[in-house]
Hints:
Layout: H1 4-24, H2 26-33, H3 37-40, H4 42-61, H5 67-87, H6 91-118, H7 125-154, H8 156-177, H9 189-196, H10 199-211, H11 213-219, H12 222-230, H13 234-261, H14 263-284, H15 288-317, H16 322-348, H17 355-378, H18 401-414
Helix pairs in contact: 1-4, 1-6, 1-7, 1-8, 4-6, 4-16, 5-6, 5-8, 6-7, 6-16, 7-8, 7-13, 10-15, 10-16, 10-17, 11-16, 11-17, 13-14, 13-15, 14-15, 14-17, 15-16, 16-17
GO molecular function: transmembrane transporter activity
Subcellular location: Cell membrane
Keywords: Cell membrane, Membrane, Transmembrane, Transmembrane helix
Amino acid sequence: xxxxxxxxxxxxxxxxxxxxxxxxxxxxxxxxxxxxxxxxxxxxxxxxxxxxxxxxxxxxxxxxxxxxxxxxxxxxxxxxxxxxxxxxxxxxxxxxxxxxxxxxxxxxxxxxxxxxxxxxxxxxxxxxxxxxxxxxxxxxxxxxxxxxxxxxxxxxxxxxxxxxxxxxxxxxxxxxxxxxxxxxxxxxxxxxxxxxxxxxxxxxxxxxxxxxxxxxxxxxxxxxxxxxxxxxxxxxxxxxxxxxxxxxxxxxxxxxxxxxxxxxxxxxxxxxxxxxxxxxxxxxxxxxxxxxxxxxxxxxxxxxxxxxxxxxxxxxxxxxxxxxxxxxxxxxxxxxxxxxxxxxxxxxxxxxxxxxxxxxxxxxxxxxxxxxxxxxxxxxxxxxxxxxxxxxxxxxxxxxxxxxxxxxxxxxxxxxxxx
Length: 419
């Protein structure tokens, strides 16, 4: 794997840290800007709003900008957004700063996924993308707990300053390690939008919203579940969330090779296992050890959904995969909002703290139905390459571009269809 993937993983680490650290610092932020904790919770929605809007918008604006330069511009916006968050004097400006910080999130992941896939031979594309995603999962193990502890000890502003520093490190790593990847002659917003018209992309995005909504229906209420039902103390929940991140990391390591071998079966298996794990958690949440094991497993099988959906969208967008890859992260943030809303709905209805697990299982099964529908409709269609062909494919891998392209075509011909 090229060193450039390390730079992309650092970007993902910073994104994962800033996305979730706010949740652990809501009481401190509320005190700092003079609002209630529930009102401060709107900052999480502000970031998600930035992701949903920014992914297609910034990807479209940068459709003709070479990928490396676009990554650097987006990283600069990430640094500005988090620095503004640290300096915001009141809630209104902090809300605006969190929207600004969220804007480059989806575009960074989308462009990064395309760049990662083109750094390696086609048969290793999913592994390359999963390597980048490892930064996001490691953020849940290290970045979020560390940022939360820093914010609790020194003040919440220091957590956002720390994220801005991570952004600066990522910017330098991108500048030095990522090779130049020129845009093709057909690049542009119209080309990207035309590719988005593929019904398989629409089905893939809906699958992500519905299926992964099951994951977030539980993740959003995991802390109160653990304190009310499992009996853990508030101080222990941070480490349980880190355990969740360990499961996600292990799942991501497995998801890459599996997706390279069999994309759709990996997606189907991920949704089936997620549904089963969520039902199991309904029964194990009352006992500490079984609950912790189930939590780690939920984190692992959730990763069996993210990588194959990402690669499916890039495959079906063919030579214009950037907006499709970025829109995937808008879909995951809609899954976050929708899953949290449905989970809160059943809790408010008096079904109990464990009820979001069953809601999540239903969403995972619905997502499986959508994924299978996409697979059935895709039968008999011509094969779509997972890696869009480009003049920059293989740059920086130490091999001659022409020779690598030839090997890539041979590997592509030997691959199974991505369905």
